[in-house]
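Write out the 3D structure for:
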Amino acid sequence: MGRELLEGDYIQADETPVGVQMHDGRGKNRQAYLWQYSRPDGSVVFDFRLGREREGPKRFLENFEGILQSDGYGAYDRVGDPWHSDARTGFTSAAGRLAPELQRSCRSFKHAAGSTYPSATT
């Protein structure tokens, strides 16, 4: 499954923390991570790692040359093609372009409603 995923030209990646019991006798969970790699309507691969360092995605994606969509976490830097898609950057950019229009809409709504709703900038 991993090979099939890496042969494509687009991968979505994310990591999530999971608690793991270690056999060290302390009886406490340690935080580890499941790194998820997938594409729409395709395979999903989970890669378990004890840490959140760059080594996880670097090793899994070392031969991948397509577009990698992620949340912008630094561990994904310099992985995939130079046009790496950073969903957080895209969202921030879009929100910045829409902010003036959103602020005008909020002021119009406050005026029409005759209330004291907080402004979009506070």
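The beta strands are 10-21, 29-38, 44-49, 67-70, 85-86.
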